[in-house]
Structure formats: C-alpha cells, structure tokens
Amino acid sequence: MLVVDDDPALLKVLGALLTQAGLTPHPASSAKDALALLARRPIDVVLSDVRMPGMSGLELLAEVGRVWPDVPVLLMTAHGTVPLAVEAMKAGAADFVLKPFDREELLFTLRKALLRAREETPRTSGKLPDGLFVGTGRAMSEVKALLAKAALGTATVLLRGESGTGKELAARAVHEGSPRHAGPFVKLHCASLPDTLLESELFGYEKGAFTGAATRKPGRVELAHGGTLFLDEIGDVSQAVQVKLLRVLQEREFERLGGTQTVKVDVRFVAATHQPLEDLVRRGTFREDLFYRLNVVPLWLPSLRERPEDIEPLSRHFLDVHAKTNGRPPFTLSADGLAALQAEPWPGNVRQLQNFLERLVVLSDGPTLTGADVARELSRQPGLAPPPVAAPSPTADSGTLESRRKDVEKDALVDALKRAGDNRTLAARLLGISRRTLYNKLEEHGLL
C-alpha cells in the first residue's frame, strides 16, 4: 500500500492501522515522493489525499493512470469536498474515503480495490516468485512444480515435512503464485499460543468480551479476507479450537469472541505441520473430519538429507546473506569446507544449516572457510554431531561418518516399515519423505 499525505501524523496513524490489518504501508509525504517510490518498487494500491501542496491527488491520479494503469488509486477527501470526490471517480479513481474516516470502512474499501484489481488482471499460470527457494536438485524441482500447480487453485493446502524444511516459504509461494497475490498473506503459529489466546487471535473479539477488551479487534481469519491464512503447526491445536476451525473451513464463516453476528470471509487456508497427523487421528487427539478438510492438497517438503546436492548452493547463498547483514566482507567456501558441510546429517534441515553458517561468518576470520573452520565450529556445537552407532557393521570403513549415517538411515527405514505394517505409503509419511524417495532409499539399502 502506498499512502500519500502531507500530514505526518495522519501518515503515522494510517501506517499503524494498515500494519495491524496485515498490509504493508509505504508512506510518502508528497505526490512527487509517491511517483519516485512507484518507480522503485511494486505497489498494489495507492491511497492518497486530494489536497496537497505542489501536485494534487487528482494530478497524481492522472499520472499513475498513465504510467501504471493496473494500480488502483483511492482518494481521501474531507466532507466539504464531496463534489471533488465525484470528479475523481469520473477521472478514474477506484474509490474515495471521507475524512475523518471510519477504520472498518477504510479497510473494506481498500480490500475491495485489491480484489477488483485481482479479478481484472488474473494470473493464468502458476509462477513462483524468484528467490524464495534455493536449490535446483530433483527433489526441490518437484516441490516447486507442485507448489506452482497448487497455487493456481483455491483448495486448502497441507504442507508436511520435518522442522526447518521451509514450510512457511512454501506457504508464501502458494500465496504469491496464486490469483490472490494482491490480497493479504496472514500467518499464525498455532503452537506458540495457549488455547484462549489462540482463539482470540484467530477469530478476534468484541468490545467487552473479556476483561481488558476495550475495543473490538479483528482476528487473523478476518484480516486474511481476500488473501491467504497460513496456520503453522496445526497439529498442536486443541480439540476445542479444532471444532471452530472446522466450521470456518467448511462454511467460511465465524463469530468473534463475545459476539453474535456471523462474519463471512473469503480466505484460502494453507496449514503446516511436522507431526504425523494420521497417528494423532488414530489416538483421538486430532479430529478426523478436520484432517480431511485440511488434507485436500497435501505437499511433502524434502529434508536436507534428501537433497544433498542443494547444500552447496544453499551454503553459498547463506554465506552471502549473512556476510552482508553482519557487516563482513564476502566469504568463499573451500572444497574441503564444502565436503565437511555435505558430510553432516543436518537433522534441523535448512534452518540448522543457515544458523550454523551465520555462526561461521561471525566467528571466522575469513575470507575463505575451510574444512578446519567447519570442524572447529562443529566441536563447539556437540549437539550437531551425529549420534554414535552402538554396533557398526564390521567393514573396513565402519568408523567413517558416511557408514554411520547409512547405518542410522537403514535402521530408521526398517523401523518405519515395521510401524506402518509394511505399508510403504504410510512409512514414507512417518519418515516425512515422499514415496519416490522412500523407494530410492529402500533400493539403496537393499530393502526392496
């Protein structure tokens, strides 16, 4: 959102309001500044005052319409200048808002403009935004292709996989590659909140709903209207909240806490979990009907162990990023340094690799990171070392890191097949990998 007004106090108020609603405001104190900002970054909607020194809001409207015809412009005007607002609508303004404005009316008008712009310029093919995912291996290529297909529809997406595999990035990719990309992307980490707070964060509350509720507050479901709501760690939601979530997924309606009015929403849901939801359903801790509502389009994100070919581009990417953010000169990675990183199992996946590389950037002298640097930092972080194998196979290289990794991996495969009653589809889900990866691993370890 580009917000244009010569009143700094109003810019601050609007910035806080839009941020709270899940939108990203970019303030400009003049039409000239607004045009410069439009030239530098993509903007979905312009909200501008009409009367400003220098170039007026109407002149800004004409210039935006000439250079950026797909960007809707909303104008703010005082009660005494309604005829001017009518003139603005005739000149091509998407809508206008009277000052002093009502909060809910303003947000409704903005979202209406976003939805109209989306409908007039729909995406005809799923295209993921560049830079979200690093890696060109087969596993990630398959994931990108599936995400692009899923983005085109409106069905609920359930992202599965171990912690640290990039489920939030995948959810954002689904949103950005969808026809809803102009709408808000709202996220909520379900595991970080107790039940009472989670419910109010999801559905909002009315004034007086409980002690301290001094005003009405919209919830994340309502803020995501016209866009996407990402529910992270959905497996940790209590059954009481599951019931209310089920209704929203089925009916696209809810009531705020302490309210009686039914609120209808147009929201796409993307959920994520690292937990085996099938096991939770069997144990009775997760509703079966909710599971099927969420599991419309299931997507499995591969662990870093399944995409070792991506460790090199990921490492170089994170080294560049962390060198810049920490004010360090560029770092390079030697051949033995890369080999040392590739030999690690990385149970925490991409997130763990990223954090480890940031520590290397901060604590190393540089500019070249070697195998010795990696080994030194690993020794300082004993939790990263692979667990010892009690009974390694009696081969010449039984003590090597690679042989131990293979032994642990084989044991995990055997255990998963046993727990799944030799059902390979279920075994793949228990391991957090795709069926194709499971078959490759079974063949590699002679278990087919």
Automatic annotation (TrEMBL):
Disordered, as annotated region: 380-407
Annotated Response regulatory domain residues: 1-114
Modification type 4-aspartylphosphate: residues: D49
MF terms in GO: ATP binding; sequence-specific DNA binding
Keyword terms, alphabetized: ATP-binding, DNA-binding, Nucleotide-binding, Phosphoprotein, Transcription, Transcription regulation, Two-component regulatory system
Pfam families: AAA_lid_14, HTH_8, Response_reg, Sigma54_activat
Ranges where the Sigma-54 factor interaction domain occurs: 133-362
A Gene Ontology BP annotation from the UniProt entry: regulation of DNA-templated transcription
CDD domains the UniProt entry points to: AAA (cd00009)
Protein's UniProt name: Sigma-54-dependent Fis family transcriptional regulator
